[in-house]
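Quick note —
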Amino acid sequence: MGRVRFTCAGRTDVGVVRSGNEDNYLMVQDKAVFIVADGMGGHAAGEVASEMAVRIIAQQLGDPRDLDEGAAAQRIREAIREANAQIFDRTLTEHDKRGMGTTATALVLMGPRYLIGQVGDSRAYLLRDGRMVQLTKDHSYVQEQVDAGYLTQEDARTHPYSNVITRCVGANEDVVPDTYLGTLRSGDVFLLASDGLTGMIDDPRLHQLLESSREPQELSDVLVAEANRVGGLDNITVIVVRIDALEQNGPQPTS
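Predicted structure written out below.
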């Protein structure tokens, strides 16, 4: 399988309103693994859940790049389920951790393909050839209402229950992650983000910012600054990954 050359950056920010940051992210660059988690359950519990999620998922994933697609998808599901089991166990044994949980969205670059595992409403987007698509689907009350035809996407953004998620890591004995597979192209830009970003910046504005020619680190800073500028009502976490080149196996031409 070929390898991917990429540039990446991540940033997390408490936002304007909250006193603590319950988000976490992790970039394991040598294995091309990127994870965002948005914890809940109150300061100290939410941040414990999100830290456990990114750490355990990365540990359990190991290096999935040389697996076939089916095995890699199974590995990412098992990694998220293991994080779920360990977080759930702590909610049973530690009184102050009861009710904690977290979202988890993980991206793996595997040669010519990408793989995403997701629970909750932290999103993955892809910008390709000037078009931005949301790759994941929120596990949320308002998304269910949109699917049923009761709300428009715009209504969902401002709904009072917009932050209520219907599936999370750690709240129950088991969880069913969604997985998404796709093909990489040189020039692709991936964004992983907690709802502290996507709840503050609508898709057209997000598209506009992603389409700029900024480097991933500057883009991460700009996205966080924009979310804070328009209110910063929640913790904000972003990872930006730009695909610079796809390399094939075998001898490489020398420059």
